[in-house]
Design a protein that fits this description.
Layout: E1 10-13, E2 19-22, H1 23-28, E3 35-39, H2 41-46, E4 58-73, E5 78-83, E6 86-90, E7 97-101, E8 105-106, E9 109-110, E10 122-127, H3 133-142, E11 154-159, E12 161-165, E13 173-175, E14 178-180, E15 183-198
Parallel strand pairs: 2-3, 3-15
Antiparallel strand pairs: 1-4, 4-5, 4-15, 6-7, 6-13, 7-10, 8-9, 10-11, 12-15, 13-14
C-alpha cells in the first residue's frame, strides 16, 4: 500500500512477458502472477490514462488494490468475485445511490475525488434517497469534476469492508459496470496489493 511521503511503485522495464488487459473487467479476470498493462476503464483513468509501455520501455510497476465482492442471490446461492473499480447500487435520479470505489472514478464521474487505488481503503459515496430531482441532476453534473460531495445529503467516507441489502426487487446492482440481477445482499471488502500494473 502507498504510504504518505513514500514513492509509489518501483522503476522497471516492460518485457514481452507482461500482459495487456482491456478495461476494469479484463483487469478483474487477470492473474495476480502477471504484470499487467491496462488500457481503458476506470482504473486506467484514475492513473491518468498513461500511455502503454512497449517492450524495452522504462516504466513503473505499481501495486493496485482489488475489491472482493460476495453477492447473495434470491435463490440462496452466494457468488464471490473480484472487482477492479467499483460496486454501485441504485442510480442518480431516484432512490438511494451508493458508490463503493477503488480509484474514485466510475465512468466519467469522479465520485470519490480523494480515492487512491492502492491506499488499502474502499471509498464510499452515497446520495440519500430524500434528495430532490433537481438537486440530483446538479450533483450528477458536478460529479464529473468531483465537486458534488459538499452537500448535506451526500455522504463520503473511507472503509475497509461494508455490506448492503437490497431495498426492492428492482434496485440495480452493478459491479465494474455489469448489472447483477436477482440479488438480495452484497458484501464488499478491500484486498490490498492484489495486482501489479505497469505505468
Amino acid at each position: 500500500m502507498i504510504k504518505r511521503g513514500e514513492q509509489w511503485g518501483v522503476p522497471t522495464t516492460c518485457t514481452s512477458r507482461d500482459v495487456f488487459v482491456h478495461g476494469d473487467q479484463g483487469l478483474a479476470l487477470s492473474s495476480v502472477n502477471d504484470r499487467l498493462i491496462v488500457h481503458g476503464g476506470d482504473i486506467a483513468h484514475c492513473l491518468g490514462d498513461p500511455p502503454q509501455p512497449a517492450v524495452g520501455d522504462n516504466c513503473f510497476e505499481v501495486p493496485i488494490d482489488a475489491l472482493r465482492v460476495s453477492i447473495t442471490m434470491r435463490n440462496g446461492t452466494i457468488h464471490t468475485k473480484i472487482a477492479a473499480s467499483h460496486v454501485m447500487i441504485g442510480g442518480w435520479l431516484r432512490g438511494r445511490l451508493v458508490c463503493v470505489s477503488n480509484g474514485g472514478f466510475i465512468g466519467p464521474r469522479n465520485v470519490s475525488p480523494r480515492a487512491h487505488p492502492n491506499d488499502g481503503f474502499l471509498d464510499l459515496m452515497s446520495v440519500d434517497s430524500s434528495m430532490g430531482l433537481q438537486q440530483r441532476f446538479r450533483a450528477r453534473q458536478k460529479s464529473v469534476l468531483g465537486t458534488h460531495t459538499p452537500h448535506p445529503l451526500v455522504e463520503a467516507g473511507r472503509i475497509r469492508a461494508i455490506e448492503f441489502s437490497t431495498l426492492s426487487r428492482t434496485e440495480a446492482l452493478r459491479i465494474d459496470g455489469s448489472r447483477i440481477r436477482g440479488w438480495i445482499s452484497v458484501q464488499i471488502e478491500i484486498v490490498p496489493d492484489y495486482w501489479r500494473l505497469l505505468v
